[in-house]
Amino acid sequence: MPPKQRITREMILERSFAMFCREGMEAVNARSVAKALNCSTQPIFSYYAGMSDLKTTLDQKAHELWAQMLEGASREGNHFENCCCAYLRFACEQPQLFAHLFMRIGKDTSAMGGPEGWRDEMIRYECEQFGINEEQAAALCTKLMTYVHGLASVKASRLESYDESLVEHVRSVHAALKCSL
After folding, report:
1. CB atoms < 10 A from the CB of 101, how many?
2. For residue 111, what is the DSSP state?
3. What does pTM read for this prediction?
4. 39 is in which domain, residue-wise?
5. How many angstroms separate the CA atoms of 91 and 159, rounded?
6. Which of 60, 108, 129, 152 sees the fewest Cβ atoms within 10 Å?
7. Together in a domain, 92 and 45
C-alpha cells in the first residue's frame, strides 16, 4: 500500500494563495510553494496538472474574493458609490490581488471587474436616481470609474491602508461630476 499523502490539495491552495496575496502571482512557483509546505514539488504535481493549472485556480480564487467584496457593497445609499468604495477597499486590503486583476497591461478591466452587465446596471441606476439620460449616465459612470481606478491604483501601489474618508471623497467627486452634466 502506498504511503498516505500528508499534503492535501487544500493545503497547497491555501499556502499558494497566501503567497499570491503577499507577494503576487510571480512569487508562486513549484519550488516556493513546496518550500512553504516543507515538502518536495511532487505533491503539487499530483494534485495539479502543472503550475498553470494551480495559477488558474488562484486566479479564480482572486476573482471570487473580489466578487464577495462587490457583493458586500451596501445597497443603502448610492449603490454605485458603494461599489466604487468597495473597489478602493479591495485595492488597499489586497494590493497584490488588485494589481493582478485590474492593473495588468492588455487585460480588460472594464466595469472594474464586476459581473457581466454590472456597468449597464450602474448606468440604469444613475438614470433612475438622477433623472438623466443613458448617454449622460454612461459618461458619468465612465468618469467616476476612471477616477476611482486611478485612486485605487495609487493606493495599491503605495500599499496605503483604507480610510473611511475615501467614501466621502468618492461621494463628493460623484456629486461634482453630476453637476458638470
Report:
1. 20
2. G
3. 0.86
4. 9-57
5. 9
6. 108
7. no
Estimate the crossing angle of helix 134-157 against helix 118-130, to 10 degrees.
Answer: 120
Alpha helices (runs of H) in 26-164, residue ranges in sequence order: 30-37, 42-47, 51-71, 79-93, 95-102, 118-130, 134-157
Q: Round to whole Å and give the CA distance between 50 and 30.
A: 9
Residue 181 in grid coordinates: 452634466
CATH number, domain with residue 44: 1.10.10
Tens-level pLDDT at each residue, the chain (181 residues):
555 568 999 999 999 999 999 999 999 999 999 999 999 999 999 999 999 999 999 999 999 999 899 888 877 888 889 999 999 999 999 999 999 999 887 666 555 666 667 788 889 989 998 999 999 999 999 999 999 999 999 999 998 888 889 889 899 999 999 888 8
